[in-house]
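Kindly draft a sequence, keeping tokens residue-aligned:
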Amino acid sequence: MQEADSGVSSPTISHRNTASLIRHAGPHFAAAHLDGLMALYVNPSHGRAVTLPISESRSQPLVDFVRCSYLGLDNHPSIVEGAIEAVRRYGTLHWSCARTRLNFAALGDLEDALSDLFAARVITYTTVLAANMSALPLIASGVLTGGKKPVMVFDRYAHATLAFNKPVVAEECEVRTIGHNDVHALEDICRQNETVAYVCDGVYSMGGCAPIQELRDLQERYGLFLYIDDAHGISLFGERGEGFARSQMPEGLGERTIIAASLGKGFGASGGMLMLGTSFQEEIFRRFALAHAFSASINVAAIGAALASQAIHRMPELGVRQKALAEYISLFDELVPTAQAGSRLPIRTIVVGDELAAIGAARVVLDAGYYTSAIFFPTVAKGRAGLRICPTAGHTTAEVRGVSAAINRALKG
């Protein structure tokens, strides 16, 4: 769903191109499915290991480098037990009720605990997608910017769950898209407009990150409103796992920054959340955010799992896992050259170029016993297909070395 680097919303500008996307990407999805690289149904084993059923009597053992559980918490015994105990305690999994009506008492406990953990006003959602869908129209309305509708600027590489909202946002205010991390273009827009909101990722899902300090400088000079989706950065940075973006804002979020994050991924549970900076923002979101007013909360198991995870985030174990992740990332960088080498971020991408060649490389790696992601348009630009690898704290040295060797063989072949 690529767009031009800049532009404004108008009746002649489209913010969606779904039919074109399907036309261009369809053959490569079909090839990846045919090669057995997509929609795998597996059984979990120890650590990052899984088994792929091949027949009634045979299965293939694999080491997964696709999951985004960067700290290896998604099968942590305390988190699993937290989920089970919460369901036992409440005797139900889910209430079909909007959050403006009834909520589980444990959900209040969770949001209080997360608010304390991250020094923000936290509201939880079923997914980060739901959090983004709730937040962006409210920002576009101007209610959070003194009644003045902002020019909403999206980073070109903003996650699909952010970019998807452009048509809705464009009904409220002007929408522009700028080049990736183009701070100069963003500053030009800030100079020319009284109220500007910028929408970006903290850690990008295909590697790289937002220039947080430069964005904060624009915020200080121009009053820029920041909406940062830090789903891939949460838990990995900060003494309490505040995340990539929040850990760089020690003085607090204030009234001009909102951070979205995942309760899955590094956090190891399930769901999404928003970190808000003011009581006014919290009041608006709890009354008018789409997923709060017209949908239900995360289920009881997810609440119990998240409560267990936030407790782990207060223990020395968090730092141990953060250190292990950093060590495995460094080891991978020694063995496989990528554009992200040397970065503390957990995602590595290897550009192959041709889509079918990338799919073939992923198949070679799979045959060696390691599951990696074959990436191609629309996940990355056309002609920039490749492999995406997620080392985690849950892997072993042998597994990191093994996948590295398999990747290098696949690229040579």
The CA atoms of residues 354 and 383 lie 6 Å apart. The chain is about 40% helix and 15% strand. The radius of gyration is 21 Å. The first helix runs from residue 18 to 34.
